[in-house]
Amino acid sequence: MANVATTKMSSKGQIVIPEIIRKQLNLKAGCQFVVVGDKDVVILKSISPPALSEFDNLIAEARKKGKQAGIKKSDINKAILKARGKMK
Predict the structure, then answer these.
(1) Would you state the pLDDT for residue 31?
(2) Are 7 and 22 within 8 A, CB to CB?
(3) Over the range 2-40, which residues count as b (16 or more CB within 10 Å of their CB) and which as e?
(4) What angle do CA 3, 31, 9 make, to 5 degrees?
(5) Is 50 within 8 Å of 41 (Cβ atoms)?
(6) pLDDT at 54 (0 to 100)
(7) Phi, psi (degrees; rounded to nearest 5) at 59
(8) Mean pLDDT over each residue of the chain, to the nearest integer
(9) pTM, to two decimals
(10) What would the 3-class secondary structure string for the chain be?
(11) Separation between Cα atoms, residue 35 and residue 67, nearest integer Å
(12) What is 1-49's CATH number, 3.40.50.10330, 2.40.110.10, 3.40.1090.10, 2.10.260.10?
């Protein structure tokens, strides 16, 4: 059963998640949330960044596709410089 508590919003739009809820969900300072609002409902969903290891397959697939397309490392470096406005 979910714990229920009340809180107030400050003039800056800030709310405090009550301690009982923070403890139950193991929320710490700096936790990030997705905020969804619809009519009179506001939902906070805690999120965490994915681990770097989760990107291994994505990176391997990107390298494979780049190789198939004939893209060289120098092409990528040029594209980065161009995007940063350091090369025309």
Answers:
(1) 93
(2) no
(3) eeeeeeeeeeeeeeeeeeebeeeeeeeeeeeeeeeeeee
(4) 60
(5) no
(6) 80
(7) -65, -45
(8) 89
(9) 0.54
(10) CCCCCCCCECCCCCECCCHHHHHHHCCCCCCEEEEEEECCEEEEEEECCCCHHHHHHHHHHHHHHHHHHCCCHHHHHHHHHHHCCCCC
(11) 40
(12) 2.10.260.10
Contact assessment for residue 49 and residue 31, using Cβ atoms and an 8 Å cutoff: no
Place of tokens 């397309």: 69
Q: For the chain, report the end-to-end CA distance as a whole number of angstroms.
A: 60
Spell out the domain ranges in the chain: 1-49, 52-83
List, for residues 29-38, the tens digit of each pLDDT value.
999 999 999 9
